[in-house]
Write a structure and sequence with these properties.
Strand order of the largest sheet: 2-1-5-6-7-4-3
Order of helices and strands: HEEEEHEEHHE
Keywords: Membrane, Transmembrane, Transmembrane helix
Helix content: 25-40%
CATH superfamily: Electron Transport, Fmn-binding Protein, Chain A
InterPro entries: F420H2_quin_Rdtase (IPR004378), Split_barrel_FMN-bd (IPR012349)
Shape: globular
CATH architecture: Roll
Distance between the termini: 32 Å
Protein name: Nitroreductase family deazaflavin-dependent oxidoreductase
Pfam families: F420H2_quin_red
Radius of gyration: 15 Å
Organism: Reticulibacter mediterranei
Structural class: alpha+beta
Number of helices: 4
Length: 153
């Protein structure tokens, strides 16, 4: 079974605040505008068991005209739901977009994550790798911290 991580309480509280602000139409970058150029979106995906829509706030990685989303806290519910549904709704401000998502293969995901960490991703410490880590370490990391490619329908 894939390793999961316990999400700290402050993250749950921050997520509630972020969800509230994003639902109100604010366009946030990074967690609460403090970190870099990582636009925050609401990602709504159908629950794999209930079929009900589930919404989380996520930072989108934008690189070379492509968009990616990574799981800082491992194999959590939104990851399982996204793997099952393979599509989601992204909302930012008043703009809503239905997207297809594809989990990247290990080697491709490792390259995306390595470039993101080297560019100073503020979430990188949660992945357990640094800019100096080997490609093999990144490949091991993406096994428990998947990266998804987000494509417009």
């Amino acid at each position: 079974m894939a390793k999961t991580h316990k999400v700290p309480l402050f993250v749950h509280l921050g997520n509630m605040l972020t969800l509230t602000l994003l639902r109100a139409g604010f366009k946030l970058v990074g967690p609460f505008i403090f970190f870099g150029n990582y636009p925050m979106y609401l990602l709504t995906v159908r629950g794999r068991k209930s079929g009900q829509p589930r919404t989380v706030a996520l930072a989108i990685i934008e690189r070379d005209g492509k968009r990616y989303v990574g799981s800082v806290y491992g194999i959590v519910d939104w990851v399982r739901n996204l793997r099952a549904a393979k599509e989601a709704i992204l909302t930012r401000g008043r703009r809503t977009e239905t997207v297809n998502v594809r989990e990247l293969p290990q080697k491709e995901a490792a390259l995306v994550l390595r470039e993101d960490v080297k560019d100073g991703n503020p979430f990188a410490r949660s992945y357990g790798v640094t800019a100096d880590s080997s490609l093999e370490e990144f490949e091991r990391t993406v096994l428990t911290h998947p990266i998804f490619l987000v494509e417009s329908k």
